[in-house]
Amino acid sequence: MKKAILLIPLLILTGCTNKEKIFEEYAKTYYENHMKMVSNVDEVTITLEDIENASIEDEYDLKPLEKCDKQSKIVFYINKTNEIENKKIELKCKK
């Protein structure tokens, strides 16, 4: 019984982490396909709504993120060569 109780929070955290990984992967692809050519920017904000709007063109499978707020966002911090240096994820999902 104790093992089952300990696994519940782990499963909840894993699910959230998996959604964050999916969101980050899609946002990176979105950045590469639609925003990388923009120069002189320090940071780029991509929302889940942005990704949804591009989903047909970029072929994202958004089923894992369908219970997430469309205004969830990821901020990529960009270096001088337009490469992603760091990130901040704000993904809000219903259980």
Rounded average pLDDT: 83
What share of residues are in beta strands? 15-25%
Biggest beta sheet attributes: 3 strands, antiparallel
Helix content: 40-55%
Q: What number of structural domains do the residues give?
A: 1
- Largest sheet strand order: 1-2-3
Query: What's the assembly state of these chains?
Result: single chain
Question: Which sequence of SSEs, written as H and E, runs from N to C?
Answer: HEHHEE
Number of distinct beta strands: 3
Low-confidence stretches: 1-15
Alpha-carbon distance between the two ends: 23 Å
Structural class: alpha+beta
User: Radius of gyration from the CA trace?
Assistant: 15 Å
Helical run tally: 3
What would the principal axes of the Cα set say about the shape?
globular
Describe the structure.
The protein is α+β, with helices and mostly antiparallel strands and about 100 residues long. The chain has one domain (about 1-90). About 45% of the residues lie in helices and about 20% in strands. The protein has helices spanning about 1-35, 50-55, 55-60; strands spanning about 45, 75-80, 85-90. It has a three-stranded antiparallel beta sheet with strand order 1-2-3. It is globular and about 40 Å long.
Core attributes:
95 residues; alpha+beta; 3 helices; disordered N terminus
Compose a concise summary of this entry.
This protein has 95 residues and is α+β, with helices and mostly antiparallel strands. The protein contains 3 helices and 3 strands. 45% of the residues lie in helices and 19% in strands.
